[in-house]
Protein 1
Amino acid sequence: MARRVFLHIGAPKTGSTYIQNVLWGNADILRDRAGVLVPHTLYAHDQGMADLREVTWYDPSSGWTWDRLAGLANAWPGDAVISSEGLGAATREQAARALASFGTAEVHVIVAGRDLWRTLPSMWQQSIRGRSTWRFEDFLSAVEKGRYQAFWDEHTADRMLRRWGDLLPAAQRHLITVPPAGAPYDLLWQRFAGVIGVPPDLCRLAAPTANVSLGAAEIELLRRVNQALGDLYPHRVPYQRVVQRHLVDAVLKQRANALRFGIGADRAAWVLSVAEEQIATLRDYPCDIVGDLDELRPVAVPVTGPTPDQLPDTQVLEAAIDTIVGMLGHAAALDQPLEKRPPGPLNRLRGMRRRLRNTVTFGTRVTDPADRVPGARRRA
């Protein structure tokens, strides 16, 4: 049975990708030198979360369930970390089930919080990249007027802590505030490392890879593509495999994305008021606060440029034409033999997979991938 289990449950858009890159990039070091297990792969954690929450886009063919993931943690005699920013959206009943699956282990919940000024535009963009079609103004209006309670329930630290943290002693609830823009890139990891009890300099760190935000023209183009898709690729995995891979990652993210946008100055007073309410609520909530609650207070200057809704059709059309040209180049690259393709991340991964298949030890055995992945099961 694990000694302690740390559940990093979100929220989305709070540096989760960076934390997860450090965790899996240093899984062997954490296991061997600190006794901290990061079981299997990020995909396993994502699918375990989807199974726990019983969402429609859970992929049963993955073979990963919450119980299977929890079983890997339970089999480890030290500490374990499970990380999925989707866990924070679990209901109270689902959270109780998750906590109960670790038996007598000491379970900790880690929630990260970020200021609303940065969170709201990021969350709308993330929803569009997840196949939504609503306009930016409609999203902001729904949040402001209380017609979109899911935003508050699934993306804000105070509500996540109420659903998960209330089920645990105060000392086992942790809130990490996301550092402001311009802070040292490793500060978020230092805060996270302190919670899970490992030296902040134990892991090899690289500067975080930017999760590229699309510009106003690019995200509006994607929104209109989502509308035109209708019932095509209705679920998360097929959409990611096709639209995210071949349109967003391969083309839209490669554009200049120069036209930035954000919440207009007309909503500044509302955002500041809500932020003060959240800070007051969290200050009164008994938990371990790592960082400074003042970092949840927006300090950004309002963006004055046009929002995606305000762009003229001619500008969106120009972006669409450039995107088609980019997709033609992407398609041409895919038609080339593997050896001649540009060495992008996807092609490098394919090359590694091909080399792995061809790796033979003394001419007798193909190397088992389980040898390289902590917690992986060997092939029968």
Protein 2
Amino acid sequence: MRIGYLLNTYPQPSVTFIRREIRGLERRGIQVHRIAMRSDRDSLVDPADLEEYDRTELVLKAGAGRLLMDSLRLAVLRPGGFGRALARAWRMGGRSGQGRLRHLIYLAEAAYVTRRAASLRLVHLHAHFGTNPAMVAALVGDLGGPGFSFTVHGPEEFDSPVALSLGEKIAASRFAVAISAHGRSQLCRWADHADWPRIHVVHCGIDPTRFADPAPMPQGAPLRLAAIGRFSEQKGQLLLPEALAQARAHGADIHLTLVGDGPMRPQIEAAIAAHDLGHAVTLTGWLDEAGVRRVLAESHALIMPSFAEGLPMVVMEAMAAGRAVIATWIAGTPELVQDGHTGWLVPAGSTGALADAVRDAAGASTDRLAQMGQAGRDRVLMRHDVDREAGKLARLIEDAIRR
């Protein structure tokens, strides 16, 4: 079986879970052709991402002329399908914040993908994210290409469900996937009740072999915390300097390592300076997977102060590494992190509650932190093994193709 994976920007450091899912499908004998609209090649540091870049076909690299020619060809050869696709693009573009012109570009991208899917004999397309990849996949179906499914991660899709026409995309798909029970509940809000049975949960997965032998918990003070992720408003890292300062003011000895980068970096650096925490915070920039595992190994716990999430991949990785987690009580996170058992859950946006959790972690014994870490490891390995989750997705695809 040969299928296509349809993505917007791929590969990129923040979506390594997609690479792992693809590899999981390939280990099951499914051939996967990667198709992305574009790639942020300059941001790639992980050798596995660089290898993935070489295996990915970039649509926009073909040029506007190629996309226009494919569109005109389908308009002539399949006027009915082209008319349906044009009507869908016009309709969805009218309710989106992006406008109809952007959706006509999606139609041209879909024409290119339709031609390539036929050439490659793809029997199914799976898109990641309910944004433009799912839009392009739906248009491919209208144009006579293979049927499609798509995975919704959140939180962006849940911020604009009407503008993204999530309900219509679900109705057009063979099936839709959420990465948590919470995510599925949000999709059910916007889908017709008759379409609820086609919405499934497939977790993002971790590769247990990458975390086969967790490093021992660091001994003694300071409490070493790691925060890993894109520096953006939804991740909430701007709370960390103040929370850290509050905890240290009550005598807690803490060091924070911030892994990642993004648009909020200047504000985060300014907050670190304002609280005179330069000696207590290390910023590493983006690291490859080996670098992330090294930071986790050197830490007692992960801290994730997010305002909005789907189900954070880095939380899974920290738990697999045998580390406790301090996270916010939002979205799918409580389905994985258990307050008082595998870590601490706090209300999103509460600096005081975050500081209290940090103080509790600083006051916990190394044995207690290790117990939390082991409980988290047991839980995530049970729920998020990448091969098990890829198997769920493979069965959904196989069933959809047979219908």
